[in-house]
Amino acid sequence: MEYQLINGKVQEVDNVTPNVAFFEHVKQIGKCEYVPVDYIRIKFAGNRDFISRKATKDDIAAHPEEWAEYQAGMVGQDEGLTPLNALPLFKMAFGLELASQDIHTVEELAAMPEPPFPAVGPLWKQAKKWVAVNDSEVA
After folding, report:
1. Helix (H, G, I), strand (E, B) or coil at 97
2. How many helices (H) and strands (E) does the chain have?
3. CA quadruple 58, 61, 62, 67: dihedral positive or negative?
4. Structural domain spans, the chain
5. Pairwise CA distance, residues 101 & 26, whole Å
6. pTM summary value
7. Rounded to whole angstroms, how far apart are CA atoms 76 and 99?
8. pLDDT tens per residue, range 45-101
9. In angstroms, rounded to a whole number, what is the distance separating the alpha carbons of residues 80 and 74?
């Protein structure tokens, strides 16, 4: 048995496998200088509490499958769909804003009747072209 903080209370739990995801956090190191930092989020099912911190070598060794997905840019992606970061005009700020609107793939962005917000217009046009070219190659 193990004890965990669940919804603000210490509770006894069986050996539960956590839901682990790696993600990129953008850290500001200067007035106009930013660097990406790898982070890990650990959450247990049925628990709204989670841990989010800088990923360590031990985290990577303990969760190799999740790390491989993160490195491949496929976190949260369905098979056969293209992650947004495959587009040349992709910027992390666009990705975060689109993710907040539940848009995670090139195909989902291209399916929008218009850009979700004005700044992403060029990326939306590029997604439309990407899907058109890939559809014509498949046909």
Report:
1. helix
2. 5, 5
3. positive
4. 1-75, 78-139
5. 19
6. 0.47
7. 10
8. 667 778 899 999 999 999 999 888 888 765 445 566 788 888 888 887 888 788 777
9. 10
